[in-house]
Amino acid sequence: MQVALIITTYNRPDALSLVLESAARQYRLADEVIICDDGSDSNTSAIIASWSSQLPIRHAWCPDMNFRAALTRNLGILKSQAEILIFMDGDCLAPPSFIESHLELAQPGYVVSGGRHMLSDDQTKSVLNGSLEHFEVFDNWKFSSLPLGILRDFRPKNWESVRTCNLSVHREDVLRIAGFDESYVGWG
Question: Are 17 and 41 in contact (CB under 8 A)?
Fold first, then answer.
């Protein structure tokens, strides 16, 4: 089963480099890594180029016209050919089991959604000044501790905990609903 890691970013090449490092450390590597760029400058392109020999990266860029994450994600979907699409943000580090966990729970007609661990300002500065070599990446408790495949069936229409920073879906399902709603502009 082909899998794409679809990563949104905007002018955070420092964080994006670490996100790509975490993508390269996956137990199961992505077949495609799509960077969905909401108008970043050339520094982001340079980071993408620096990782292109290690990861199968494509760059989906659109002009900077406010916060348009939905549009950039849709551009990433169009650049991808994979059956499973895993979405994450360009400042979220993925534990090595991230892709494996999503694939284990993937099922047509269902969204797989996880959370994230928020770092303090000091932790963020420490990570940005080093690399993942010096940072213990937290495994996502939603994936490692709970049998989500069973729990999600109890409340299949509960969308309150869905976060696009850690989300996967079958390609056909997201195409069936015409992707993300591009009329939504802004953070949140």
Answer: no
Spatial distance between the Cα atoms of 112 and 143, rounded to a whole number of angstroms: 10
Q: What are phi and psi of 152, to 5 degrees?
A: -65, -25
Where helices occur in 2-105 by DSSP H, the ranges are: 13-24, 42-51, 69-79, 98-105
- The residues, any chain, with a CB within 8 Å of residue 49's CB and separated by 6 or more, are none
Distance in angstroms (rounded) separating the CA atoms of residues 15 and 119: 13
Which residue segments constitute the domains of the chain, with CATH numbers given? 3-176 (3.90.550.10)
Question: 108, 95, 107: which is closest to 166 by C-alpha?
Answer: 95
Q: How much helix, strand and coil, in percent to the nearest 5, is found in the chain?
A: 35, 15, 45
Phi, psi of 116 (to 5 degrees): -155, 160
Q: What is the pLDDT of residues 90-143, one digit of tens each?
A: 888 888 989 998 998 888 988 877 766 666 667 666 767 775 554 555 444 444
Residues in the chain: 188
**How buried is residue 150: exposed, middle or buried, by Cβ count under 10 Å (0-12/13-18/19+)?**
exposed
**H-helix or E-strand spanning residue 60:** strand 57-61
Q: Which residues contact 13 (CB under 8 A, 6 or more apart)?
A: 40, 43, 44, 46, 47
Alpha carbon 70 to chain centroid distance? 13
pTM greater than 0.85: no
